[in-house]
Each structure stands twice: as structure tokens, then as C-alpha cells.
């Protein structure tokens, strides 16, 4: 699969899971240095918001928007993942007075499991996954242009339907 950044094409490494697939498990650390696995949320609806770089305008908008929306949805676990460092993520959250499950995929384990690594940029592709309580992907959006926001309405609609 290929996406663009301001018109320049970039190939994604690996195979992206599709709707209906069992969501690949992963292990990444949160801001408290705790290892978090997708399987930790078994039996819950999980909304995974993937951003290339927390310190950019569109990524900040995506993180804030999903944080606001998810806080209004009972029984939904929001996870925001980027491959920024723990320090960059913690500084961003503190500056915005936001508390969310922010995971740093520094070794790209999540990115490789989900086929989202843009090797030339060493970044994750902007994307959204909704996983139902049985661990199946019920919604997937890999945003074709990195500088565009995801379709929040469709992601939330899928999240509500997954419960």
C-alpha cells in the first residue's frame, strides 16, 4: 500500500489488517513505562488512533478530537499510538492538559504488526482501527494523504456499533 505526504508517495512496509481480521496483538509502553498489550483490553471495544508525529498540527487535532469523543463513550478504550519518544508525548499531553492512554511505539512493533511503517520517514501512517470485544477489526481507515485528518464520524459510528 502507498500513501502520500503533501503529494509525495511513500510505501507502507508489510500487510495491513482488514475489516473482519483478528486484530494483531502488540506490546508497547505507555507514559508510565508500563507494557501495554492489545490483549489487555480483551472484551472491550478499542479505538486505536495512530498518528505520525504528535508535534504536528494535524496529529494534535486528531489526538484531541478522539480524546474528546472517546470521553463521551462508555465502555470504549481509546489508545493513541505514535513512534514519538515518551518524553515528546508526555510534554505534549502536559501542555494540552490531556490525559489519555498514549503509547510510544519506539521500536515499531505495533507499526510492523499493522503494516503502517513508512520506512523512508521512520513514521507510522495516520490511521484508525476499531476493534470489537471479540478482538476483530470492525473499522479500518488508513488516511491516504498524511496531512489530512481521518473520518471521525465514520470511526465513531463504527465504535458505537461495535459495542
Automatic annotation (TrEMBL):
InterPro entries: AhpC/TSA, Thioredoxin-like_sf, Thioredoxin_domain, TPX, Tpx_Peroxidase_subfamily
EC numbers, comma separated: 1.11.1.-
PANTHER family per record: THIOL PEROXIDASE (PTHR43110:SF1)
Organism: Carnobacterium inhibens
Signal peptide bounds: none
Primary enzyme class: oxidoreductase
Pfam families tied to this protein: AhpC-TSA (PF00578)
Superkingdom to which the source organism belongs: Bacteria
Domain Thioredoxin intervals: 17-163
One Gene Ontology term of the molecular function aspect: peroxidase activity
Keywords from the UniProt entry: Antioxidant, Disulfide bond, Oxidoreductase, Peroxidase, Redox-active center
Protein name per its UniProtKB record: Thiol peroxidase
SUPFAM superfamilies from the UniProt entry: Thioredoxin-like (SSF52833)
